[in-house]
Specification:
This protein has 206 residues and is mostly beta strands. The chain has 1 helix and 16 strands. The strands form 6 sheets. It has a 3-stranded antiparallel beta sheet with strand order 1-4-5.
């Protein structure tokens, strides 16, 4: 029997709401990017998830929408699901998932795409993705979904991230007390070079 993303009762309603929400977020993202009017229509073909989406990143140049959250599959409402665990890349031309599939073992809660589009930084609750151990923070190659050597090793959930005004580091916030075994309470600045050592921000107040 072929399974489908359900299209009945409360489940269907939730999926429609998620699809509508994803469509409107997609609409707003493209609007802020200043794309032409034809590109900001509400998408009916954008795939939905079977769970919750916590973070979105648009790569307009390469035509990708990265979604991270708590889900196990993506697909059209009423159509066959495609297994994607907590992280997926959707083709902006078709709305469908690509073959990119790092499959983090626990939820993704924050993402940032490097300016060159070659690396997607992800944070959350996970401890493994792309077949490698990464505690709550990782840098993924957007070409194939393999983790880069960058590995800050955060001891608690990462909930938000933003690049520093000066290139070369990333600010992260969440429920953690250390980064790479250095004390950092709730907020940290992490170098984007090498394996991702923490910098001065976020040390224990005195």
């Amino acid at each position: 029997m072929t399974s489908v993303l359900p299209d009945c009762g409360a489940s269907a309603s939730r999926l429609r709401l998620r699809a509508a929400a994803a469509g409107w977020i997609f609409f707003l993202a493209l609007t802020f990017l200043g794309l032409p009017a034809w590109a900001v229509e509400l998408r009916e073909d954008l795939w939905a998830t079977d769970g919750t989406v916590h973070a979105l990143v648009v790569d307009a140049e390469r035509g990708m929408l990265y979604i991270g959250g708590e889900f196990t599959a993506v697909g059209p409402v009423g159509g066959p699901p495609t297994a994607r665990r907590n992280l997926a890349a959707l083709d902006l031309a078709t709305g469908a998932a690509t073959g990119w599939d790092p499959s983090p073992n626990l939820p993704v809660r924050a993402m940032w795409l490097a300016p060159d589009g070659a690396t997607l930084y992800v944070g959350g609750d996970f401890t493994e993705l792309g077949g490698q151990f990464r505690n709550r923070l990782a840098a993924l190659e957007t070409a194939v979904g393999v983790p880069r050597p960058w590995n800050p090793n955060v001891d608690g959930t990462v909930r938000v991230m933003i690049p520093s005004a000066l290139a070369g580091s990333l600010y992260v916030g969440g429920d953690f007390g250390s980064v790479s075994n250095a004390t950092r309470h709730g907020v940290a600045e992490i170098s984007l070079l090498g394996v991702g050592f923490p910098l001065g921000l976020g040390q224990q107040p005195v």
